[in-house]
Amino acid sequence: MSKTDAPLRVGIAGLGTVGVGVIKILEGQRALLQARTGRQVCISAVSARDQGRKRGVALDGYAWCDNPVDIAGRSDVDLVIELIGGSDGPALALARAALNAGKSFVTANKALIAVHGAELAELAEANGASLRFEAAVAGGIPILKALAEGLAGNVVTGLHGILNGTCNYILTRMEREGLSFGDVLKDAQRLGYAEADPTFDIDGIDTAHKTAILAALAFGTAPDMQALPTEGIRNIAPVDIDYARELGYRIKLLGVVRRTEDGIESRVHPAMVPLAAPLAKVMDAVNAVVVQADPVGQTVYEGAGAGEGPTASAVVADIVDILRGNIYPAFGVPAKRLQHLPTIPTEKHKGTYYMRLRVKDRPGVMADITAELARENVSIESMLQRGKAPDGGVYIIMTTHNTREVAISSTLKHFTQLECVLETPTMLRIEEF
Ligand SMILES: NC(=O)c1ccc[n+]([C@@H]2O[C@H](COP(=O)([O-])OP(=O)(O)OC[C@H]3O[C@@H](n4cnc5c(N)ncnc54)[C@H](OP(=O)(O)O)[C@@H]3O)[C@@H](O)[C@H]2O)c1
After folding, report:
1. Buried (b) or exposed (e) across 364-402, using 16+ Cβ within 10 A?
2. Is 311 in the pocket of ligand 1 (CB under 6 A)?
């Protein structure tokens, strides 16, 4: 048997939702995987914290490692699969140990790749190993493969993604049921759609990790969390969801990356998306990504972004690539040639905006507001007055023509200082694509 006909022996660290899903596919689809790749895959060793925990799969045929990092040093492991999580700790130690030993490394860990991806890609190449992480972004949607392979002949100009199922689920229920963010979050936690500590999801950090990875694949740059201004959905109010709809939009938490003449723009924030746009129709816990590229134009990818089956499906796709010998650089270009393109700060972002003010119900208010808009040269596309706001006063809703974010930020600051303005104004970016 030549080396390439020999079974690929894998070690799996982390036997939670995803780890168990991967074992089920590798064991349950053994014949299918061999037929598709011409090679057998077998599990040699596994690791988790609690050896005694019942996991719904038989583990007695595999060696047990108390320390996950030991998996990398085993002579009966060719490929290391990390399904523990976290940007540092055992996940990072295992990645470094595996790649330094020249063993390929597959992970579903977006935090690890967003923070240490460039270092690990370099380590993989220096040691002739492969680093793959399809499951780290949008779970079951093969978006990294699409960028690295299917769109390899294109220049990506922009990408918008709904990348966090928890946030999309919360926004969907707020709209459908007219509930507040806090009420839906509590119910989502009860139903298992949100973690007990939901910070990573609702504050946009999870989306930022995924957006950093997408930007790296799209533009051949090193993932850069520092260049990613991030806002979550905590401050979204049902009233803005209603006004968005009235104006022809739906609010979504987006990861956005864009190539402009001045550099790369990456950001994570809730945005108003036109109701006719593909992302506006993505509801509940579903994920989706829209890519603009030249010459292909717009392509749309949609599916389950998390869960045992979809995430394990993506991990196994990476294993299949390694079985087939389909090896390419982690971020689509060799690690040493990852570019450091200038990033555009948010103040320089140019776009259209939605603003909502709660103001006193008295004559002269409109004049005060329009004077502030004129001061910063902000041109208004539409302005509505709606009364009565539940806490007193009336609402003024505005959308702007194309303008720089720095002008919007100053205008909001001036609004706050007006005697007629009753609370901190709300601002949302409008994304037309
Ligand atoms: N769940 C999803 O839908 C999903 C989707 C996309 C990506 N991911 C990513 O996939 C990875 C795994 O997620 P998951 O949902 O499967 O997590 P999980 O259910 O919490 O499982 C984590 C596993 O890691 C083990 N573990 C934790 N700390 C350890 C340590 N110090 N040493 C050894 N083992 C340790 C745990 O052991 P015990 O079981 O003994 O406690 C558990 O088996 C994460 O990077 C996550 O971001 C998950």
Report:
1. ebeebbeebbeebebebeeeeeeeebeeebbbbbbbbee
2. yes
